[in-house]
Amino acid sequence: MADKQLAKKIINVFTDIACAFVKRDEKMVVVGGWYGDRFCDNSKAIYLFLTENKEKFGLDRVIWHTRNDDVYNQLKRDGYDVEKIGTRAARKSSIKAKYQLIDSCGVDIDRLFSGSAVRLEMWHAFPVKRFGGLNEFEKGGIKEAVNTNIHRSELGRWSYFYCLSMSQKHSEINQQAFGVNEEHCIIGPYPRVTYLKGEIGRYMLDCEKETMKKLESLRAQGKRVVGYFPTFRDDTEKNDITIETVEKLVEWAKDNNCCIMTKMHYASSREAGGDDDLLIALPPASDVYNFIQLADIMISDYSSIVFDYLIMDRPIIFYCFDYDYYLNKDRGFAIDYDISAAGAKVYNWDELISAINTALEDPRAYTESYADKTERLWNVITDPDTREATPEQLETFWKKLYAKDKTEKLRKIKD
Prior knowledge:
Layout: H1 2-19, E1 25-31, H2 34-37, H3 41-52, H4 54-57, E2 61-66, H5 69-77, E3 82-84, H6 88-96, E4 97-102, E5 118-121, H7 133-136, H8 142-149, E6 162-165, H9 168-178, E7 185-187, H10 191-196, H11 206-220, E8 224-228, H12 236-254, E9 258-262, E10 279-281, E11 297-300, H13 305-309, E12 316-319, H14 323-328, H15 337-340, E13 344-346, H16 349-361, H17 363-369, H18 371-381, H19 391-402
Parallel strand pairs: 1-2, 1-4, 2-3, 4-5, 5-6, 6-7, 8-9, 8-11, 9-10, 11-12, 12-13
């Protein structure tokens, strides 16, 4: 481990020297997501937003970096600015682009020459569950997280960056999770929520278009769409229960004029089965934010997808069949689960079906019955100027980032 850290530090020194001879282009932005593989989530949304508004923001190029041949070929075909990671073109834009944006980690883009750029981490969740420094340090351990991270190195200096944060609470979580200072957290809305609302132009991969046709056909037949989007567990047996739940829901849907929409985690042991006619299994490469606005109700557990779905003002059900296990033996929670669960919490199959029936019978009455909880949750995950995730709010965030001349180094926090 020490040898790897030393190697990264040495490489960063040499790449920084190389970048010193090249002026960063403030009219060029590089964006990537999910280890360079998928075109989805916050990175996709802000890429499309900036592409749509290049002239308005004075940008010449907004470039998507990817390792995925299918993503590269389709974006290229459709006239978007895209480059393959590892190519000369991507290396060149890594050296030149002043602004470099990700939502997972540095390998989302061609990162080697990112060191002197303005680097932004948008992450892919307001965390319900703990990760990073939230696991490594006790609650409230921002000082320990930052002071430890100061000594770490990642290629392209992606050990520290600016963080998109939707609220003050989100900023505090990001500070500990990523080991960055408060001044590295910039308040703004999640681009994917703006996209979900239809306020950024939609873009679908070819594999998504076929799935959308099926979903729209079922809706035209009067089928109500029940979305089930569980999070990943470290325990394979618990993951298998979520797959079995999908299969049981499909059987239930046959007699209840419904269809089931789901996307299993990429690390799941298998795909869900059942009646293909009533199961909308989103492709692994798909962006759920092309689809969840069509769900009549949302079922999840510890996934942050429910926070985005709040904007739809529709019923949400929390199926936490393994709550005690998850709390004590799996990831645990970044925020109080009672606060994050703005809907019915159910713990077994019978309770789940009862809650679904209640939500479908009178969706408005269901959501109104949890209005106080919803408002409390809104006040945690967003600030007043980020809640609606309007294009104007997203523009305000972009201007804050664009005003940065560089990524400030970490500041040691003293006692």
